[in-house]
Design goal:
Order of helices and strands: HHEEH
Distance between the termini: 33 Å
Largest sheet: 2 strands, antiparallel
Number of helices: 3
Number of strands: 2
Shape: globular
Strand order of the largest sheet: 1-2
Number of domains: 1
């Protein structure tokens, strides 16, 4: 969860975000392997890791969603 929040920080920028994502996936692979994932950083395959959905992918996805600009709507609600 902390890594997901770090991914959402504007100061992290484009340089730190891939490194944090790799860190989240490595931590997930060490804690609870359950899913095979290819980690891509700028088009190159960095590693082939087994990660857990709860410890690896969900925090990363949450961080990426939180990093969207304020004018981008993820969900649209009908009136």
């Amino acid at each position: 969860m902390v890594a997901g929040l770090l991914l959402s920080l504007p100061a992290a920028g484009a340089l730190l975000r891939p490194l944090l994502l790799v860190w989240v996936l490595v931590a997930g692979a060490l804690l609870r392997p359950s899913l095979l994932v290819w980690v891509l950083v700028e088009g190159w395959v960095v590693a082939d890791l087994r990660v857990s959905l709860l410890t690896g992918l969900l925090p990363a996805v949450a961080g990426l969603l939180l990093s969207l600009p304020a004018d981008v709507s993820v969900l649209r609600v009908r009136d």
